[in-house]
Amino acid sequence: MNGQLIKKIKRETESKHDKPVCLIIDDTDAPKAGKKCELIGRIYSHVSHKSILGFKCLTLLLSDGVSQLMLDFSLHGEEGKKPDKKQGLTKSERDARFSEDHDKQAVKERIDEYLMKKTDKAIEMVKYAISKGIRFDYLLVDSWFTNSDFVRLITSRHIKCNFLGMIKIGKTRYQTEYGNLTAKEIIRKLKVKKLCKHNATLRCTYCTIDAKFAGTTVRLFFCKRGRKGQ
To answer: What pTM, to 2 d.p., does this model score?
Structure first.
C-alpha cells in the first residue's frame, strides 16, 4: 500500500523536491489499563522512568520532509529480571490473560516477534523495506539502535544510503589516529589538540573525527551547548 502511495505522490507532485529522504526507526510506549489482554506485561518506560503496564511499539517511518509514511511496526514485551515474576506479573496474573493457539494463523508471526530483541527486529524491517523497493538517503536512529550490526547492514547494501545515529558516551572503542579510544577519551584528546571549534550563531562547541568502527570508516561528531556544556 505504501509502495502505491509513494508512486502516486511522485507522479502528482509538481514542485521540485531536493530534500533528503530519511528512514526513521524508533520505539515508544503503548500503555494499557487491563491485565487480561493477550501477552500483556510490564515494560520500563524511559519517558516516566518507571515500570508501566503495556507494550513497546517499534515503528519504521519514511519521511522526505513533506510526506510521512508509516511503513512497518511490531509490538514487543520485556521478560523482566525476576524469574518468579516474568514480564512483571505474578503467575496468577499471567494465567488470567487471554490465550489462544495461533499455530495455523497469520498472527503467529506477531506472537513470535513479541519477545524478539528490538534491534534484531529493526534490522529485519529495514531489509524488508529495501527488498520492497523503498529507497532512502539516510537511516536515522537514536543511540539504542546504533550498533555494529546496523553499520554493517547499511554499508553492505547495494543502494547508496548513509547511516546517521546517536552514540552513547560509553565503553565502545573506536580506532582513531590516536589509538583505540572510547568516546570520552576521544573528546579529551581533541580538547588537548585544540581541535574543538565554537559556532557563535548556533552557540555551540563542536569537534569531529574520522574513526574505524565495525570494519568501516565513520565520522564521529561531538557538540555541546555554549563553551561549558556537557
So the answer is: 0.87
pLDDT digits (tens, 9 = 90+) for 14-60: 667 678 999 999 999 999 999 999 999 999 999 999 999 999 999 99
Its CATH architecture, for the domain 2-166, is 2-Layer Sandwich (3.30)
Report which DSSP code applies to 56.
E
* Residues near 2 by beta carbon (within 8 Å), at least 6 away in sequence: 62, 69, 70, 71, 134
pLDDT tens for residues 95-109?
999 998 888 888 888
Which uninterrupted H or E stretch holds 204?
A: strand 204-213
Residue 75: half-sphere exposure toward Cβ, Cα within 13 Å? 14
* Residues 6 or more apart in contact with residue 118 via CB below 8 angstroms: 27, 56, 58, 76, 144, 145
Torsion of CA 60, 162, 5, 70, to 10 degrees: 10
Q: Where are the domains of the chain?
A: 2-166, 171-230
